[in-house]
Design a protein that fits this description.
The protein is α+β, with helices and mostly antiparallel strands. The protein contains eight helices and 16 strands. Helix content is 32%, strand content 30%.
């Protein structure tokens, strides 16, 4: 037999003594069929397992504890209804997500933990170097400077920041606000942060600040703010220096200088020209504000 002859030719020459007593094919056929079923079954299980892996929600990126109700918890964040809340345990502190909230994870890196509050409210307790914990909102970005605070955002993207320890920086475009402990700041979509004010600020001052920050900035509103301001309200006037026109800024400077005389190194011309070094130095002399390096 050559290499090109069919194997049947060689089989014919084999001795009859090795011929099986019966046809073996039915048994072979059953074994092949069973093995095929096993392989198909294993493949089915693998496919089912893969599908289960895809469909089963993955563990949240941040360890989360249910406080009450049934919040929706996933790797992307936490969504609560009016009857639920949850707490995120961060490596730098914790964040309690209140009822009716949509709080999302943006990114977690060694140098920054960034989140987004689309609506609702959070209460944050952070022990970390400044600018590690950041929360985006529809109106502004809140950057922790080492503190504890409560942040509320309504369905329109407007809200309120209340700081209970440390300081928080709010930035939207070119508008910036530093909110220290004991102060609050309104945030408005399309405008950004308003001028911070003490929690016990008068209604007259509050309305005047809102008119300046979110309205027409008429001289009458500046008049109201200056007449209503106390020593403890120097925080608000300090922010107004960069929010009104140069003429009104001069009037704000003069009133602030009466309430809290500027320290050595701070001049009227320098402040009105926008010297950040002078503004930061004066900030350190205002009542109830945290220290800032000039």
């Amino acid at each position: 037999m050559t290499d090109f002859e069919p194997p049947v030719a060689g089989v014919k020459d084999l001795p009859r003594s090795i011929e099986p007593p019966r046809d073996l094919w039915p048994g072979v056929s059953r074994r092949i069929h069973w093995r095929l079923r096993l392989l198909v079954g294993a493949g089915g299980l693998a496919a089912a397992a893969s599908l289960l892996f895809v469909l089963t929600p993955r563990a949240p990126l941040v360890p989360t504890t249910v406080i009450h109700g049934h919040p929706v918890i996933s790797r992307s964040g936490v969504i609560t209804n009016d009857a639920s809340s949850a707490r995120l345990e961060l490596s730098i502190g914790s964040v309690e997500v209140g009822p009716g909230s949509d709080f999302r994870v943006v990114s977690i890196t060694p140098g920054e933990q960034r989140f987004e509050l689309r609506r609702g409210g959070i209460s944050a307790q952070v022990l970390a170097p400044p600018r590690v914990f950041v929360v985006e909102t529809p109106a502004t970005v809140a950057t922790d400077l080492g503190c504890a605070y409560v942040l509320q955002v309504d369905s329109l993207g407007n809200g309120l920041l209340r700081v209970t320890a440390g300081q928080v920086e709010l930035v939207t475009g070119g508008r910036r606000a530093i909110v220290p402990a004991g102060a609050v700041a309104s945030i408005r979509k399309g405008f950004g942060p308003g001028s911070p004010r003490r929690e016990d600020a008068s209604r007259k001052l509050t309305e005047a600040l809102d008119a300046i920050d979110f309205g027409s900035r008429e001289p009458a509103a500046v008049d109201s703010a200056l007449s209503a301001a106390r020593v403890d309200d120097a925080l608000s006037l300090w922010h107004l220096l960069s929010r009104v026109n140069p003429v009104e800024a001069g009037r704000v400077y003069d009133r602030l200088a009466v309430l809290v005389p500027p320290p050595v190194g701070v001049t009227r011309d320098g402040v009105l020209s926008g010297s950040r070094e002078m503004l930061d130095l004066w900030w350190n002399y205002l009542p109830w504000t945290g220290y800032r390096k000039p």
